Hints:
Blueprint lengths: L1 H8 L12 H6 L2 E2 L8 E2 L6 H12 L8 E3 L4 H22 L6 H14 L9 E3 H10 L4 H4 L2 E3 L6 E3 L12 H27 L1
Helix pairs in contact: 4-5, 4-6, 5-6
Amino acid sequence: MPVIFACLMFQWNAHRFSGGRLALDVVNTVVCRGDPARRTDRFAQEGSVVDFARAATQFCSDEVNHRQITPPPSAAALQALLHLREATNAWLRPQSSGEIDNPAILHRLFKACAAACSPTSSSTGEVTLGEAAARSAMAFFDPALVQRTRICPNCDWLFVDKSKNRSRLWCDMNVCGNRAKARAHYARRRKGEIALRVLQ
């Protein structure tokens, strides 16, 4: 019962779109990638992709020229989106950590973008989530944008640092920044309590 309740409470709110680009928000639908015990694929939950597309229409409106983002129209289109998500992550995450660009991984991203951009019957006022994510990922072929891509030290999400001096540390200061501050405060308080007990 608690698991069902947690699923019902989950929302695609503004924090879930902290990446700064739709392609990164799609990558970040896998939570805690580096921790197998906590790793969660939000797209694996029933109806989640549909809800994500609806929320992306709102939060990524400028990036898609104010078109409506529609969910993948078929199982094949959904698989193409998932392949694109992993290819985008595989290419950007190492570079965000200072590693050298890998041509083989870049080739994988090219193929994933092409597959996600297959012709669809969407109207001019719509764009499928796969195509929108692919177009967003292609923007990262610009090295300047890649250089501004960061990994949040709290949640491990990718995000674009849009600050003037490129000093942004958290994907979302109101969430991850505050959580990190709270942990640091707790650690300092615990250290002080331990020191006090030793002195006593």
